[in-house]
Amino acid sequence: MQFLQLSEETVDQRLLPLFVLYDLRIVYAHLTSAESREEKFISVCKRIGLDENCRDNKVIYDVIIDKIISMYETIIGH
To answer: pTM value?
Structure first.
């Protein structure tokens, strides 16, 4: 219930890893122009705290996985 009482901004921050994961799906599915993909990739990296030029998928996904785990732990109260 505590999660439901958070502000909209806080909820957006808590759910950020899911939004980032969705954006990566768009990037890798090539559903946009090359320029738009690059802009989205830069945005993904910045939002998860990586250098905007990082293109190491293992690093990117490791960070996202850690953030998703943290998100779920926060939601369930651990």
So the answer is: 0.80
